[in-house]
Amino acid sequence: MRNLRMCIAFVSVMMMSPIALAHDHGQAHENVASDAQNLPKVPGVIKKIQSMSGKVTIKHGDIPNLEMPGMTMVFEVADPSMIGTIAVGDRVLFTVIRDRGAFIIQWIERQ
Ligand SMILES: [Cu+2]
């Protein structure tokens, strides 16, 4: 209840303040990471890692947001630092988007 009231107060301030609105607009563009967190987490097993090209081959389960059934295929990582957190044979959860024909891993975590 208290949170709700704070939320309403916050929204009211936002609506009255053009500066706050502009700030919020800027944040929306930086919020790719939190958008990615809303993607379904897909289970998979790492089959191959090509660290130079940032490509990872994963035997993956169903990917609901891409309407893709389970298979083994190559993905790209959104951030090269992701490569260092995984190894061949790892069971992982990951989120992925399709961008201009490429499948880009947004988030990945060992299980
Ligand atoms: Cu696939």
Notes on the structure:
Helix 1 (2-16) packs across helix 2. Strands 1-2-3-5-4 form a five-stranded mixed barrel. Strand 1 (42-50) and strand 2 form a beta hairpin. It is α+β, with helices and mostly antiparallel strands and 111 residues long. The protein is globular. The chain folds into two domains: 2-36; 40-110, Copper binding periplasmic protein CusF (OB fold (Dihydrolipoamide Acetyltransferase, E2P), Beta Barrel). The chain is built from three helices and five strands; from the N terminus they run H-H-H-E-E-E-E-E. It has helices spanning 2-16, 18-30, 32-37; strands spanning 42-50, 55-60, 71-77, 91-99, 102-110. The model is unreliable at 7-15 and 17-31 (pLDDT under 50). The two termini are 36 Å apart. The longest helix is centred in the first third of the chain and has 15 residues, at 2-16. The structure holds copper (II) ion. Copper (II) ion binds next to strand 3.
